[in-house]
Design goal:
about 325 residues; mainly alpha
Length: about 325
């Protein structure tokens, strides 16, 4: 099979750029936030061509609309991409989410099937059958290794955290391996930044919980730009001093502003938002490639972010949260 070139993406890139104008802009997000009713807020998504809004009668049950939009986006990209398998990178987290749910259902005697998602790379019935039969040949190698490790280690401790730790480690490892196979700097850099972002959030949370550095070492995700020794050697330093060390990685200002807000409010909201916005800064660079895989990857990531923004707004309105507070939580938009 001939190697796919950037120019092979000319048609796909033009398709993506033609629909970017329909995405959720900051102006549209503000309109949703200020809407007087849930119906008015959801109607804003009509401008973004979400689902079949004319068929919606229960405006409190918006989740199905967002799930459908997510599936529609991935189906669209895979239908126009010269190499659709490259975009599995962005679906692996949903596979691993489903594995977490299924494993916890089994080991903790739960029934959380309502939070399973049908947007991964592997169908739910295949995941369920593999786990039930302890036969993982239809899963990826990493998924099989993760499940075997859980089956081996969980009975020794019966600690539910172990399930999350193991599956997260293999998920991000799988994403990074897949990113490196694309040989595309934009995608590799994105996954590395995603790993760094998760490690920073974990570092801050565990320090606030007064967990030891050796626990952090267990949950640290490898593969990012910030190596484990940066975190571990400075684990007992105050946030102000640790933030200075992040200057070389571009996270100093985000870290200091986020942890300052945490000290004032006791909430992680600001730090999480700033880290997400940092990722979006990188993703926005995809718009400046005239053609190539970057445009499609950027659009996919941006749509995930857009759906997250819509969910934050609609969940906030459902809970009766004030527009100003919702506004504080809303992430940077792609367009």
């Amino acid at each position: 099979m001939a190697k796919i070139k950037d120019t092979d993406y000319l048609y796909a890139t033009s398709r993506v750029k033609s629909i970017e104008k329909h995405m959720l802009t900051r102006e549209r997000a503000e309109k949703m936030i200020d809407a007087k009713s849930m119906e008015d807020a959801i109607r804003v998504l009509d401008d973004c061509y979400y689902g079949y809004l004319n068929e919606i009668t229960d405006f409190e049950n918006y989740e199905s609309l967002l799930i459908e939009e997510h599936k529609k986006t991935y189906d669209f990209i895979k239908s126009i991409a010269p190499d659709p398998d490259h975009f599995n990178i962005f679906l692996y987290p949903y596979d691993y989410h489903n594995l977490k749910v299924l494993v916890k259902n089994e080991y903790l005697n739960r029934d959380d099937t309502d939070i399973l998602v049908d947007t991964g790379t592997i169908e739910l019935n295949v995941l369920k059958h593999a786990l039930k039969e302890r036969s993982f040949s239809d899963l990826t190698e990493n998924m099989g290794k993760a499940l075997n490790e859980i089956i081996e280690d969980f009975p020794k401790t019966r600690d539910p955290q172990l399930i999350d730790i193991i599956l997260d480690r293999y998920c991000f490892d799988e994403m990074l391996k897949a990113a490196e196979k694309t040989r595309n700097k934009f995608i590799v850099d994105y996954v590395k930044m995603l790993i760094d972002s998760n490690n920073i959030k974990t570092f801050v949370r565990l320090k606030k919980m007064k967990k030891s550095w050796d626990f952090f070492n267990k949950v640290f995700l490898k593969g990012g730009n910030i190596q484990d020794h940066i975190f571990i050697r400075n684990y007992d330093e105050p946030f102000e001093k640790f933030g200075e060390l992040l200057l070389a990685y571009g996270y100093k200002d985000v870290f200091l502003e986020g942890t300052e807000a945490l000290a004032e409010t006791g909430k992680f909201t600001k730090l999480e938002k700033l880290l997400d916005n940092k990722l979006m800064e990188h993703v926005k660079s995809a718009k400046y490639f005239p053609y190539g895989i970057e445009a499609l990857a950027g659009y996919l990531i941006a749509k995930d972010n857009e759906i997250k923004i819509a969910r934050i707004i609609l969940a906030g309105k459902t809970a009766g949260i004030s527009p100003d507070l919702i506004r504080e939580r809303v992430r940077e938009t792609y367009v």
